[in-house]
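Entry 14. Structure prediction run on the chain below.
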Amino acid sequence: MLARAGRQEVGPLVARTMMELPGLASDALVAARRIYFDNLARNLYLRSETAEWVACLGEAGIPCWPLKGVGASLLLYDDIGARQCDDIDLLVRVEDRERAQALAVARGFEPAVLREDAADSDGKAVHLEPQGAVASYILDLHWRIELPRLVPIEHADFWTDHQGGSALPLDLVGTVLCLHLWRHAVTLKTLTDMATFVTRYEDEIPLVRARLARAGAGDGVDLALALVERIFGVRSRFLREHFVKRALLPLLARSLRRPFSERGPYFGWLVFPLQCEGLLRPVGRAVGYWMRPGPRHNRLHPGPRLRRLARVLGRTRFGRVAWWHQ
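Output returned:
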């Protein structure tokens, strides 16, 4: 069970629960303690590094918010060692992204992709990798929480009365968790976070729904709540009774059995139309994103994108069913 939980990125949370079980076999107890305390040590390190990034950016006049990560572990589980965290996610304002990236480069982090790709105006973040022994994590520098062509979230509320705190307001946390759940292909880790949020902060759900509804993705909240109820038995009183997409829940529930790393990279595109209201709007947004002009040549280039999509889908299998055959 610990091995399977590790593949699903919920190993520390399962290990913590196992440590509290009476009569647990000694070898299982040793394994659970090792997993939990190793993750605790890493999260303490990541918390220190996150605070240092926030301080450095603040000194440069760049306000920022930590997203998910160690802060979510404390907020959701009251335990810094419960949630597995692999990197640091920071949100800065769009107008500050170049200065923030330059500061990261000065501290020994370089973009993991070509600079012209990182400068994509339709992007949302740049992945910065440490050079040498500077650090042991990847820094994800966000200027948006989602791709603007797909889910155009209004970010003004993120910076209203920003005081440089360590945690977002609860309704914004719920918005980030819900988007992270759907745009990262319905993983067990993200669904567990969402279920815990519903359990502890259910009164924030109407605000989350209203914020996503303005971006044309209000159905994503109801899909999340329905799946939380199906898998964990946690029912929200804000889940609409007449929810027309319930027939898709068995398919989405089955997807949780497969770790994210074993899925095709385009599984998220299959889920994307399910989270939005209607059909033509999300399909149109997806097509608009794929056919957008490149940042280097400023012209459409559908051919290479479609060929790459076809190749990947040709290799992608979900369970025993092939999504695409070439």
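The longest strand covers residues 87-92.
Filed with the rest of this week's runs.
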